[in-house]
Amino acid sequence: NQEKKFINQETDNFQGKYIHYNANNGKVVTLNNTEKGIVTIYDASMNAETSFEVGALNPVNGKNVCISDNEYIYVCKGQNGFVIYDYNGNKVGGSKKSANGVDVDDKYIYLAAGDGLAVLDKNATYVDKDGNTYNYKNAMSVYVHTDGTLFISDSDNARVLRADIDGNLIDTYKVPVSPLIPKDFVFKPLKSVMDSHGYLYV
After folding, report:
1. pLDDT tens digits along 98-109
2. pTM, 2 dp
3. I need a surface site. Which of 12, 27, 41, 77 has the fewest CB within 10 A?
4. Could you report the per-residue pLDDT of 145-193, keeping only the tens digit for each?
5. CB-based burial of residue 199 (10 Å sphere; 0-12 exposed, 13-18 middle, 19+ buried)?
6. Residue 100 has what DSSP assignment?
7. How many CB atoms lie within 10 A of CB 33?
8. In the sheet that 38-42 helps form, which strands lie side by side, from edge to edge?
9. Distance between CA atoms of residues 195 and 97, nearest Å
10. Cβ atoms < 10 Å from Cβ of 183
């Protein structure tokens, strides 16, 4: 029923380039595909509660993304950086560094920053030992698995990387060999996630 209501709302001017559902608090957060970068928060019944601007997205049709936890909303604005807001629309932090994708856990923010993977604390302060991004060139997105490992979509190198919190490589996933995949298939992973059974979705 929730899914059906969500689809009906979407066809009835429910706008959002990127949509994130927080199962813990029942909130749905959307990032609208406009130059102003409008975030809208919906309750569990899909009624709009709050809407606010986060600033221009660059490019407008780029890899801008948003995600939320129980306290904050995290928004990537492409070349215009990364911002953190509370649920009342108050800006509480951010970074001017280009941001393609984001994921969070209880302690850290994992940012796919275009020129590498950055790990920040919840105050948006870089926490890697040298104050620099990890050496994952052109990371397109990052996903934090329940075991604490990171899945990094390395689009330019046609692979998904699995690493630990210190940036040490654990595994590499390239295009699978299968008769169902054409020989001329271009494998450029933009996002990846692993389910509880160990299946990787790219």
Report:
1. 787 888 888 788
2. 0.63
3. 12
4. 888 788 888 777 788 888 776 667 788 888 888 888 888 888 888 778 8
5. exposed
6. S
7. 16
8. 18-22, 27-31, 38-42, 48-53
9. 30
10. 4
